[in-house]
Amino acid sequence: MAKKLIKVVGAIIIKDDEILCAQRGYEKSLPGLWEFPGGKIEQNETPREALKRELVEELHIDVQPDEQPFETTTYEYDFGIIELTTFICEITDNQQPILTEHIAIKWLKPSELNELDWAPADLPAVEKLGGLQ
Fold first, then answer.
1. What is the pLDDT of residues 48-102, one digit of tens each?
2. In the chain, how many domains are there?
3. Residue 104 sits in which domain range?
4. β-pairing, 34-35 with 18-23?
5. What CATH number is associated with residue 125?
6. Cα–Cα distance, 115 to 31 (Å, whole number)
């Protein structure tokens, strides 16, 4: 049986030359792995609209995503095929993220990103960001 394609978005939030990294909860798929926060794109929603909605829901922050995606990656997990599109974002109004779904966040320099155990779909963007130093 063919696996379901799940289109998701992730926010690469940069502040003071550091990038927001979020750790998934242990009751979710990919427990304990790190990711760029975001989520599924709903029907009739653009990727940028989905990202803004997800970040309000997950972290209670408003973001302004870039017009163009930073990276798009497709990765096949046991539960389905994830197509992850990441956007570089800025937090508006200097808000602080509030955890509702993640168990931890860290602000890291691009050169420090590879110290975390990332979800596989996020790795290409992590590697690309590491080259921005």
1. 999 999 999 999 999 999 999 999 999 999 999 999 999 999 998 888 999 999 9
2. 1
3. 5-130
4. antiparallel
5. 3.90.79.10
6. 17
